[in-house]
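stage 2 :: seqdesign
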């Protein structure tokens, strides 16, 4: 994927894109490998060229909460570039398969953003979108049950242009709970007739019921 295809750089000048390419380091990261750990100093801005990165936080007991999945064409660690200490806000790992990324030094990225108004505006929009996403995540975790969050997840996933097959463990990671809890809640949704299983595929049988559960 070319840098110019990233939404962040869509309006950027050719000189800016050339500068990003010049200062970046290309890396192929094996599945499960960490790119950075929460608190790492001078964390780079990460551009996802191929694959996916999982952004998450973990406590001392090993419990993890996924904050975001960043796919090809998306950016990770953007907030770190604009903080005083430049520390990574969360852990970042290659998710499920090898990922190809570009690592852009934070100082170089900030310098380019201050020189290119289109990139500067795109950064503000990206940070605003991330703030909205995290606000929604806090609302889900604090005010909604696992069943509500699962119903909402299934509805959102079914609405994507390319829905994928998720294991219960992967959904649990997304929703910040345990695989056993997801399996139990999935059985409840099946008993209610909201979803059904067909040849290892999960089918939404009653979208309205699922919507009511998500919003109750």
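stage 2 :: out
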């Amino acid at each position: 994927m070319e840098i110019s295809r990233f939404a962040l750089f869509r309006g950027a000048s050719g000189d800016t894109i050339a500068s990003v390419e010049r200062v970046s380091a290309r890396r192929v990261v094996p599945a499960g490998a960490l790119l950075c750990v929460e608190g790492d100093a001078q964390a780079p801005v990460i551009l996802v060229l191929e694959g996916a990165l999982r952004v998450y936080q973990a406590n001392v007991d090993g419990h993890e909460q996924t904050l975001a999945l960043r796919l090809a064409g998306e950016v990770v660690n953007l907030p770190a570039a604009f903080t005083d200490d430049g520390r990574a806000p969360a852990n970042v790992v290659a998710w499920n398969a090898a990922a190809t990324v570009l690592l852009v030094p934070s100082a170089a990225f900030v310098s380019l953003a201050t020189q290119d108004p289109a990139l500067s505006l795109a950064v503000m929009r990206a940070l605003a979108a991330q703030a909205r996403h995290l606000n929604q995540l806090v609302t889900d975790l604090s005010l909604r049950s696992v069943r509500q969050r699962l119903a909402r997840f299934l509805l959102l996933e079914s609405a994507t242009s390319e829905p994928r097959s998720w294991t219960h463990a992967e959904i649990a990671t997304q929703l910040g709970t345990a695989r056993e809890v997801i399996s139990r809640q999935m059985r409840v949704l099946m008993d209610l007739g909201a979803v059904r299983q067909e040849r290892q595929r999960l089918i939404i049988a009653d979208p309205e019921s699922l919507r009511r559960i998500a919003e109750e």
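stage 3 :: structure notes
- The longest strand covers residues 64-71.
- Residues 117-143 form the longest helix (27 residues).
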